[in-house]
Amino acid sequence: MYIVIMGAGRVGSRLAKVLTLEGHKVAVVDKDPRAFRRLGATKVEKVEGVGFDLDVLKKARIEEADAFIAVTNGDNTNIVGSLIAKNRFRVPKVIARIYDPLRERLYQTFGIQTISSTSWAANKIKNLLLHVELVRHMSFGNGEVEVYEGEVSPQLSGKKVADLLVPGEINVIAVIRNGRAFVPTSGTILEEKDGIAFTVTSTAIPTLKKLLYLS
Predict the structure, then answer these.
(1) How far apart, in whole angstroms, are the C-alpha atoms of residue 203 and residue 144?
(2) What is the pLDDT of residue 28?
(3) Would you place residue 169 in the very low, low, confident or very high pLDDT band (cuts 50, 70, 90)?
(4) Out of 3.40.50.410, 3.30.70.1450, 3.40.50.150, 2.60.40.10, which CATH number does the structure's domain 133-211 have?
(5) Nearest CA to 124 among 115, 113, 108, 135?
(6) Is the pTM of this model over 0.70?
(7) What is the helix (H) or strand (E) element at residue 136, kind and residue range?
(8) 131 pLDDT more than 50
């Protein structure tokens, strides 16, 4: 894949390094040339300029991009750049990081997939504080389908993954055991303290909680 990343901060530079190591071609755009120091000797194309400037994006060869990732420290910059990438240059996959979780649904209506580190951190801290055993990680579309992670309780130990499946509503996508994740089959036997990740429709959250003995 050819990927254009807007923002050479900690997240952008780290992402560029990881993607490059996996064999992808990457261009990083940032208005501050000093930010490129974080990239070190990573073989990425460095483009200086404002990430939503058309000429700058063309210099980054956005017309060839398979994906555009906006991870600057400004919500407005990220969404403007993402909208230009999606609507002007028809980039197939566009992802924007946002800080204000209240804007998340609004941006998703524009067809932009968003990652809110603020929402994720707040939910993680809340769940650690209150010992809640069901954590929301992300959503798709307008929130119709979401990804949740829970923990296998003593009551669930010994049951099969099939016992947690609800066709069209709840699906198990991963089991985390002793720090390692794997894709289970319907016959996989659950063990106490396993982590378990689901895709679930928003209307089926109460059902999922009942299956996990959380309600």
Answers:
(1) 8
(2) 96
(3) very high
(4) 3.30.70.1450
(5) 135
(6) no
(7) strand 134-140
(8) no
Residue with tokens 């993402």: 82
Reference 148, options 204, 105, 193; nearest CA is 204
Average pLDDT rounded to a whole number, residues 146-159: 89
Q: How many Cβ atoms are within 10 Å of 121's Cβ, its own excluded? A: 10
Three-state SS annotation for 60-91: CCHHHCCEEEECCCCHHHHHHHHHHHHHHCCC
Mean pLDDT (the chain) is 86
Separation between Cα atoms, residue 19 and residue 56, nearest integer Å: 22
Are 201 and 144 spatial neighbours (Cβ–Cβ below 8 Å)? yes
Instruction: State the Cα–Cα distance between residues 25 and 44, nearest whole angstrom.
Output: 7
Of 26-30, 127-131, 134-138, 195-199, the one with minimum mean pLDDT is 127-131
Structure tokens, 88? 């002007």
The residues, any chain, with a CB within 8 Å of residue 23's CB and separated by 6 or more, are none
